Amino acid sequence: MDGPVPYLQWGFIQISLANLVVIGVMLVLFVLALVLPFPGHAERGDHDAGPR
Amino acid sequence: MITNERHSDTEPTSASSSVGPKAGGWTGAAARWLERRLPIGKLLPTRQPYYIGSWVYVFGVVTIAALAWVIASGVILAFFGPQWWHESATGRFFNSLHFWSIQLFFIFMVLHLWGQYWAAGWRDGRAPTWMIGVVIFLISIITAFTGYISQQNLDAQWIAVNAKDAINATGAGAFFNPLNFGQMYGLHVMLLPIAVTLLVVLHVIQVRLRGVVAPIGATDADLVDGGTVETSP
Question: In this predicted complex, what is the ipTM?
Answer without folding.
Answer: 0.78
